[in-house]
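Table S2 (text version). Query chain:
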Amino acid sequence: MLNHQSTRGLILFLLLLFVSGCVTNSPPFEGDQSPPVTPVTPTADLPEEALTPTAVPDPIETATTQATVVPPTATPLSSEPVITQNPIEPTDEGVTATPIVDPPQEATVTPPPSSAQPAPVRIMFEPGAVSGVVNDFVTHSESDSYVFRAEAGQKVSIAIVSAGGTAGFNLAGVNDGSPLKRLENEMSIWQDTVRTTQDYQLNVVTPHESVAYELSLTILPPAGERPTPNYRFLSELLLDLTIGLREQDYSSLRPLLKDTFHSIQYRSEGAVIPADQALSGMTGLFGSSGNFYLAPSNGLEQQGFDLFAPWGPEAGVVKGLYAVGLGDSGEDEAILAISLNEDRYYWHGMYFATFGFE
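Corresponding C-alpha cell output:
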C-alpha cells in the first residue's frame, strides 16, 4: 500500500504531463510578432471606391480645424474682385507672388505751368508803306518774337539798333523752317530776296540783363517793280541809311540827301557842303574799324546832350541816330540828323566827334 507522500507525487506528475501535451499542440510564436492576418480577397460586388484606403484624420487636428458650415444665401454674385490680405503661395513656375492688397488710389497729376514763349507779334505796315519800325526792350532770359508775310521774289531788309550793339536776331521760314540768319551771325543788318511765299519769324535776343532796341523791317516788291523811294516813312530811310553805311555803298545813299548836307565838328564851327562832296568825304569813316553800329540816342539825352540844338529849329530835324565805332581807331562817334520836309524824310547832316562825345 502506497503511503500518502507517494500519492501526492503521482498526482503532480500526471498534471505536468497533461499541461505539457496542450503546449505541444499550439503554433509557436517568435519574439513579439503578431499572429498572421488572413488577406481579404475583393469580390466583384464591391465598388472600386470601397477598395481605396481612407485616411483617418487625426483627432486633435480635426478638433482644431473644424469650421461651422454656413449654407449659401440668395445674395447675387458680385463682379468685383475679391481682395484678401493673405499672401499667395509661390507657384510651381518659381515666380514669387506678392500679397494682394487694396489697389492704390489713382493720383491726380497737375501739369506744371507752361513756360512757352508768347505767340509772335505780327508786323503790319501802314497802308501804302513798305517798311515799319518796332521799339521795345528785351532781356537775356527771354526773346521777343515777330512774324511777317513775304512773297517769293520780294526783297526783305532787317536792321536792329541797340545800346552797344548787344541785341541780335535770327530769322527763319515758318512753314519750311529754313534758317535765313542765325544768332551766330552777329550782323545787325540782313537783307536778301526770299524764294518762298510764307510767314517768316524773327526773334530778338540779348546776352545782357535788359536792352532797348529799334527794329526796322522793309519788304520791297520783286526786282524791277520797286518805284523810286519817296521816304514818306521814317523806317524806309533808316533802313536804307543803315545798310548803305554798313556796306559803305555811298552812291546808294545819294537819294537820302538833299542837294546840300550839314557837317558839324564837335566843339567847332559847322559848314553846309554839297551832298556829293559830303558823301565822298565819308569814305573809310564808317566800317573801317569793323566796330561801327547805330545805338539808341537816349543815352546821350540822359547825359543832358541836346540832339537838336546843333541844327536849329528851322532845319526840321526830328530824329538823331547815335553812331559809334567810327574811324580807323573805332573811337570816333557821330550824330546823324534826320529831318522831315514836305512830308519826306532826309538825311540832313552829321555832327562828328573825334574820340567821342564827352
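Notes on Table S2: Confidence is low (pLDDT under 50) at residues 28-34, 37-114. The radius of gyration is 56 Å.
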